[in-house]
Amino acid sequence: MATELQLDQMTVAEKLQLVDELWLSMTPELDSLEVSPEDRELLDTRWAAFLKDPTSALTLEEFQRRMKAIRT
Fold first, then answer.
1. How far apart are CA 43 and CA 64, in angstroms?
2. Which of 10, 18, 29, 64 is exposed most, by the fewest CB atoms within 10 A?
3. Ranges of H-type helices in the chain
4. CA end-to-end span of the chain, whole Å?
5. Residue 43 and residue 49: Cα distance in Å, rounded?
6. What pLDDT band is residue 1 in, cutting at 50, 70 and 90?
7. Do residues 56 and 50 make contact, with C-beta atoms less than 8 angstroms apart?
């Protein structure tokens, strides 16, 4: 397992490759994840709201700006 020091020494491209490998290794197991009825209702409500008004979704740039603001 990579330690924090090893991760700090990785390039962004290497980190993205690691994330990709981790995601692909989990893909077969994702279908077995359980979603609670409450979470499913929330997701369905949010999806319906998006379909009704797609402009309500954040752009990638706005999402990134908000995430950066949270981290600082």
1. 22
2. 29
3. 4-9, 12-30, 37-52, 60-71
4. 28
5. 10
6. low
7. yes
